[in-house]
Amino acid sequence: MKITANVKQNEFALPETAFQKYADMVYRLAFVRTKSKSDSDDVLQEVFLRYLKVWQRLESEDHVKAMLLRITVNCSNSLSTSAWFKKTEPLDEAIPSTASLDGNTVLQEVMRLPLKYRTVIHLHYYCGYSVDEIAKIEKLNPSTVKTHLSRARKMLKDSLKEDI
Amino acid sequence: MFSDDYKNAMDGIRPDGYIKQKVLKKISTDKAKKKASKIVIFRAAAAIAACFCVALSVWITKPFDAPPTNGKAESYDKIFAAVKKFQIKANTATFWDRLTGGITLFNNAEDEIAYEYYSDAEGSVMVNGATAGGSAPSTNAPIDDSVEVEMDAGADGDSYSETTAQVDGVSESDIVKTDGKYIYSLSSENGILRIIKAGKEPQLVSRLSVNEDGFRANGQMYLIKEKLVIIVNGTGSKSETAAFIYDVSKPEKAKKVHECSQSGRYNDSRMIGDKLYLITDYNINTGKIKEEKTETYTPSVYCGNYNGVVKADSVYINENCIQPFYTVICGFDISNGELLGTQSLLGGTYTLYCSTENIITAGYSSDNKTPVSRFSLNDGKVKHVADGSINGTLLNQFSIDEYKGNFRFVTTGTKGVVINGEVSTNYRVANSNSLYVLDGNLKQIGAIEDIAPDERVYSVRFMGDTAYFVTFRQVDPLFSVDLSNPKKPKIIGALKIPGFSNYLFPYGKGNLLGLGMEADEDTGRTSGIKLSMFDISDPSNVTESAKTVLDSDYSDALYNHKAVMVDIKRNLIAFAVYARHGIDYVVYSYNNGEFTRLAQIELGEVYSDVRGLYINEEFYIVTNKTLSVCRLDDFSVITTINIE
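YS: structure for the whole thing
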């Protein structure tokens, strides 16, 4: 019966529940980072397989969300390795798939940013995370995140001719 | 406002429902076999059926519903009409659809995930037509020790190991290959090919990048007659798969001599002799099809002697297909890079089996059935022969077997789980397992249904007239099925032991090796990787003659048969396991009812795919970064070199 109690406690973190709730969120971050639909599919699967290893230790809904984003950042760093322990490697920036985003300048311009910049833009403007929270997710120094964010803003401002 | 615009645009980006369903299914099944409390929850979700009762007595042969009718397309008009059905209607298009013009951006999604989902061989089912009782195998039946074929290569008589494959005579691709003199290691991370001269003092003789503009190596490689074949994926939105053929007669100066490519994402491949069969999944972008442009809705092939769309009469249309999704099968001649034959099936394939004479594809259907098609192979030529349908879904290539002109399948059926009082369509659990025997025209001639309710098949081995398979919930029943009369298959034995086997390998006469996980009999909690040896000299009374449990709970070998080396002649069972401090490579042998650990070699924190192979008296362990040479007699490490 102990097990039942354990289940109750952790219900919010159940992989199926988390998947139903956060699959889209994971997918969007993966897309921003990989710029490719098919790679994002891979990342989506990889993220939740890794999640299976950690979900029981998660303490709150927010923790679940942040953990999933963190795994997504890690997973989308290196796509071709099969396993859970990945060396983090910057993704090739030259994947030319932004062409398919024709018709939406905002998205297009964000996708044109370097990987680290579009990641912070996404986490900040789409997921609504603060600099400190992003720092935790990306395992970076808050001041680094701050720099990324301000540089990304400046680049977007230049290209979109719009204050952001 | 930037943030609003960005949010709006981003909201349109989401995974396809189809992908979600696949991933969710994968999560559910993976969860069930990983950790104890996960299994408990899985069961809670699956609900009821607490007691483990196996309805051995129930086997019924049901008449079948009409199989899908696959029509030869004959003309491009027919193909166009079939593809057009899937076009998205303008008024139902979402924001994102409008933004991107239909499914432009997403056109490779299904194929990619289908490949990903099914390719990692979860709960694998191993099929082999070898004979258990000593009767002679038929000509098209693979033979007993196909697991690791020892080759006597040429006049100098080097003996070396080959990639573990399903069927004797049919090679399977891998990241490491050897010809007994050189070892070829391909990194799927960065597409670097390393060629190492084997010996006590190995030498890296060549290092070259396979990746080029628009193509990325995916870790599939073949080596035959001084030709190295490397399969590469088209990158970005390019739905194309190519085979690069390298001349390695002078390994120091390996150079690409031919290039063959076809539409679609990589699904699988096989090599028979020097004929390569490349199978891809090609998803049509229905937003862009134009009737006068056949290339927008028909697969294409590019190679030495063929450039352009395939002929209309090589396309078959499955009238019941649920998505605009082709399976493209091409036979290529490796010696000159020419196309020998091609067939396409509109309907898609998630797993396939290849014997020396046939390819069986298993496709998608909206109900709980699997449409299957048979293509005959003849020296590179491919010909569509028949279609059929079976209940349930197949786990992977090993769920299928060919023996004496009949085809045998083991499937698992699923049912929706009740969540909050509603039957979920997304979250399904296994609820029954079945075995089907189909004749050469894929008409059902025999079946056993409803085996082990609420369990899932973990592994199967067909051995001539007998089939062995493992299902799992808490204890692992190993079933023996008598198939001597294919019309009346019969369960003749069931051995229950804790844990489960992901793979079954024939291991010499009367022995069957199981590789899987140990689990607690009461809770189903898994406690470590387990090797079991089953005594199958009497198929109706199978016993576990030995077992050993490793201090590790993860190995790639549990999910990929190519990661394990099983060599009966040299009595070696070798694979890499995840240990506390990194990866260890373990080597076992089996003698007189006992497993002996010959070696446990620490590789450190490599976390890449690891392959073991032997050439003559040396054993080699190849990782993404290093190559270690050991003595085959005592497994002492002679040297380790960096090949990064």
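YS: worth flagging: Helices of chain A lie at 2-9, 15-34, 37-54, 61-75, 105-112, 115-126, 131-138, 142-160.
IM: good catch. Also Chain A touches chain B through 55 residues (CB under 8 Å).
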